[in-house]
Amino acid sequence: MSLVSHEQELLVAGVDYAAGPQDYFALLKPRVMSLVVFTALAGMLVAPVPIHPVIGFASLLAIAVGAGAAGALNMWWDADIDAVMSRTRKRPVPSGLVQPREALFFGLTLSLIAVLTLAVTANLLAASLLAFTIFFYAVIYTMWLKRATPQNIVIGGAAGALPPVVGYAAATGSVTLDSLILFAIIFIWTPPHFWALALVKSGEYERAGVPMMPNVKGADHTRLEIVLYTLLLAAVALAPWPMGVGGRIYGALALVAGLAMIHLAWRVYRIREGAPANRAAMQLFGFSILYLFMLFAALVVEHGFGLIERFGL
Amino acid sequence: MTAVTDPDRNQGIRLTPEQMRNRRLRNIAIGLSVALLAALFYAVTIVKLGPGVLRPEP
User: Fold this and answer.
1) pTM
2) CATH at residue A72
């Protein structure tokens, strides 16, 4: 499908001048952006080289805008899907507030500004990684994988997992095992997180023609994969502790929260019928967000306040 | 002096008060973003090159 025909399909008879700044801000997917900023900050703080606060702030801003730009490009391409799903139909493009073409150029312009800014403030490696992240999310995931394979969010999860690597690269100019382990945590976290939601919303994904795991392989198979990925996640999330990337606070949290994740995933596996099944899936979905936040918050606290160096924590 | 009356003058796109308000807010948002970007590049320049960049060569 060419870009032009896709655009024509999406063209909404909207009202010019109707959108306010808040609608363009919504195109940036602010909630996703906040998680990106947080994980990138953790990557920056974990780095052995301290980064100047001004450079760090400017780099984080560039990473945030880059992530937002990828979100705008996603909303441009996916407006037809967003229009038929209850969770997304009020987004600026399907609701007609912002024209598809505006979202496209908004996303492209911000991508360019973000990558160039990061190249100037940090270094070329960080800027290249940010450009790759935007490309991977907007083109590889959104335009290709999402509508093509039930492994869409597994492979596409790489885009969401890259921000700590970008943050680390902004501080050090390198990619090491320390930043790649943070990448691995988010990468393995993504499937059980999204599939828990997909179990509940499988009807909507079916109507929208998105081949999510529950629609293609069935709910039972998805439940099994959720458990397997969660077991792997709980194990991998412990790795930063012995590696010295995380301290004791991180280690204890990763252990306890990891066991809680396994417990909730097991409940999703066991409870398969009716409202209790949906409740179990949504509990796992909700807790998975808290889980990832807690892990990276522990890293931010430990490294941001120098707890490991000062107190051996 | 007679007033010049242009029949086409009042035709074309007419914005509602809400549309005009949104347009003004969009312009303010763009202005603030450009100002922030300029301030950011100024601060990054000072940090990277040092305050000496502002002093003229002797």
Assistant:
1) 0.88
2) 1.10.357.140
